[in-house]
Specification:
Largest sheet: 4 strands, mixed
Structural class: mainly alpha
Strand order of the largest sheet: 2-1-5-6
Strand content: under 5%
Helix content: 55-70%
Radius of gyration: 30 Å
Number of strands: 6
Number of domains: 3
């Protein structure tokens, strides 16, 4: 017998923790709030931690108690949540490693392989939304813990009923708390079967034992399905099958099989293939690209070195893993096929894009086992297998770094968005809906961004009535936004919160970064060039009189939520100048313009209409050379500006005193822009 000893008991858990930190923690200090985390922070602020029991009443009542616990501990600390995000992922990885060790106690090396692949699974891109997904990881850890506990019970007769009871209670809570991992419960009979391979030799005896052990769990599943379908149906998805005729039955089956195969391919093969897609690196810039390359190289080499040394430490008598690899493939395939049923039955799409990649979480375990088995059975030397694993891990870590950088960029854009709104609108009348076309965020929706809007303008509201609502026109038209006519009621329910308003009390926004946020005025901006879809129709609803330019209680920007106020930049001066233009304060508008142009940033070149307030203000002050100069700049930036420039100069002609200089300037501009 060999005297070689594996690394210590804590080696693999520490390696998994290091991989989580490297994969998901490198950019943590520069990440922010996204998607459903925005409402979570708002709910916490308005209702307190205990309020989550009400928030989740409509779909996941038991999940609220878990939120109650975590939010009471972590509060509103962004850094704490981002760190907890990868810590909770590590806990699920630890649970997966422990679960596999219960089944294959004498196979530490391939179990380590599978656990590493599980840790850096590259098909899920929402890691950086930590409040939402840290709880999902905890539930996933509980699911895996439950599966491991029943195996542990089978191998410990003295404490079987203790472990069996713990396994059942864990499954009970996880199943009724989050439906994502319900399909994994279906692999329990397979796990028990594998675990009983040395206890029972007769097929019939083993089958009988499996059924006996699974009956309570099947009963629990039956109760859950009855509860979900008839007592507490979820608003997230319903079983949708047309089975009224034979052709419909076969058509539904065909569609189901096609969808399942496509989803399995995406969540397994394509998820890994995309780690080698470097097409988005052009957005990075030189420094992040170099950091990405060094990170991939360093991780690949480190993983290869560790796995090679780990292989050398494994006792020689347990180095044969062929049976494990076959069992891993078998269990992995079963886990993949069972994982998707909660989504296939409700026709929820599984994609490798936000927000639908969240469903790939259920496939992580099966995919990791499948790929471990396939790599293990490759007819090549073990060293080459280890090198392949190292390359895969390095590429996946690089993918997570690229994704984190996308989130970092979006956080900066989100902060800019809300600071610009605060500069432009010191206070907005409660009950106002802000309509926006083509919301430029990938990881946040109008529903989620309604939360920070209310934190800004109604910071002391402790009721469940939303004072403000952000509405994406494309997403909500023909739903609760039934029309773009005035006088249409807007009633929106968001969990425990409600908004009641009308299209008669609305402001329309336009935001295309790096351009500034523009509050549209139908009397000034009707000829705005290159407007997004629906914007021209929606613009007539925009009422800037809902903005109080000199409020007693101006908007409050909590720096713990929105970060420190940026140094005055082009958009700062533009927003302040546009507000001054709204009140007819032409001197302040031109003063702000002079400061803006002194920056020499030329950011207005990305959005020529941002020159309009300065054109109009200089004209009103008789500074005709400046008005002409800014008009010519705007037209040079975009020839499509001619129509709105014509409208601006027609307005200038009627609103400024008629003088020789005024007449000459107006005639010159009307001629240059070919105004009718």
């Amino acid at each position: 017998m060999s005297n070689r000893k594996p690394f210590g008991t804590y080696t693999i858990p520490l390696v998994l923790l290091a991989l989580c930190a490297i994969s998901y923690g490198v950019l943590v200090p520069w990440l922010g709030w996204y998607w459903d985390d925005w409402p979570s922070i708002w709910f916490l602020r308005v209702m307190g931690a205990a309020g989550f029991t009400d928030v989740f009443t409509i779909d996941r009542p038991t999940l609220g108690y878990l939120f109650w616990l975590t939010t009471a501990i972590l509060g509103e600390s962004l850094l704490a949540w981002q760190v907890f995000g990868f810590i909770s992922r590590w806990l699920s990885c630890l649970a997966f490693w422990w679960f596999l060790n219960q089944i294959w106690q004498n196979k530490p090396e391939p179990v380590a392989w599978a656990s590493i692949l599980f840790t850096i699974y590259p098909g899920f891109y929402q890691q950086y939304i930590p409040i939402t997904y840290s709880h999902m990881y905890l539930i996933l850890a509980l699911v895996l813990f439950s599966l491991g506990m029943i195996v542990k019970g089978l191998k410990s007769q003295a404490k079987f009923w203790l472990y069996y009871t713990i396994s059942f209670l864990s499954a009970l809570y996880s199943t009724f708390t989050l439906e994502y991992f319900f399909g994994l419960e279906l692999i329990r009979p397979v796990i028990i079967w594998i675990s009983l391979k040395e206890t029972y030799t007769k097929f019939s005896e083993k089958l009988k034992k499996v059924i006996q052990l699974c009956l309570p769990f099947w009963g629990m599943i039956t109760v859950f399905l009855y509860w979900r379908f008839f007592i507490h149906p979820t608003p997230r998805g319903h079983v949708q099958f047309q089975t009224d005729t034979i052709p419909n039955i076969f058509n539904e089956i065909r569609m189901l099989v096609t969808t399942a195969l496509q989803d399995i391919f995406q969540s397994s093969v394509l998820a890994w293939v995309q780690t080698f897609n470097l097409s988005k690196l052009y957005k990075f810039g030189l420094a992040p690209t170099l950091a990405y390359g060094l990170l991939v190289l360093a991780v690949s080499i480190s993983v290869i070195y560790f796995l090679y040394k780990y292989h050398q430490k494994v006792p020689s008598e347990i180095l044969s893993h062929q049976k494990f690899y076959r069992e891993a493939i078998f269990l992995g395939v079963i886990a993949i096929f069972t994982a998707g049923w909660p989504f296939w039955m409700t026709k929820l799409p599984i994609e490798l894009d936000f927000p639908w990649d969240r469903f790939t979480l259920a496939f992580m375990a099966g995919v990791s086992l499948l790929f471990t088995g396939i790599i293990g059975l490759l007819p090549v030397h073990r060293t080459l297998k280890i090198c392949l694993l190292g390359v895969l891990v390095g590429a996946a870590v690089g993918t997570h770094f690229r994704t984190a950088n996308d989130y970092r960029r979006e956080w900066n854009s989100e902060k800019d968005f809300f600071w610009q709104i605060a500069w432009r609108a010191p206070q907005i009348k409660p009950g106002t809906a802000l309509l926006i076309s083509e919301l430029p965020f990938e990881y946040s929706t109008d529903n989620s961004l309604t939360a920070p809007l209310n934190m800004m303008y109604a910071p002391h509201n402790t009721t469940t009535t939303m004072s403000y609502l952000l509405v994406s026109i494309e997403s909500r038209l023909d739903t609760f936004l039934t029309s773009l006519e005035k006088g249409i009621e807007i009633n929106q329910l968001y969990r425990s919160f409600t908004f009641r308003g009308s299209t008669s009390q609305a402001i329309v926004l336009y935001y295309t970064p790096p351009g500034c946020v523009k509050f549209l005025d139908p009397s000034l901006d009707a000829r705005l060039p290159q407007k997004p879809k629906y914007l021209a129709e929606a613009m007539r609803l925009s009422d800037l009189n809902l903005i109080d330019p000199n409020p007693l209680n101006p908007v409050e920007m909590d720096i713990s939520i929105f970060g420190e106020e940026p140094e005055p930049n082009w958009c700062y001066y533009y927003e302040k100048a546009d507000l001054a233009r709204q009140t007819g304060d032409w001197q302040t508008t031109t003063d702000l313009g002079e400061k803006a142009f002194a920056l020499n940033t030329r950011l207005y070149e990305t959005n020529a209409p941002e020159l309009l307030p300065f054109i109009e203000a200089n004209a009103h002050l008789g500074k005709w050379e400046n008005a002409i100069k800014y008009s010519q700049k705007a037209y040079a930036l975009s020839f499509r500006m001619n129509r709105i420039l014509c409208e601006t100069w027609k307005r200038i002609a009627t609103q400024t005193p008629s003088t020789t200089h005024q007449n000459n300037a107006v005639q010159q501009m009307m001629a240059e822009f070919k105004c009718q």
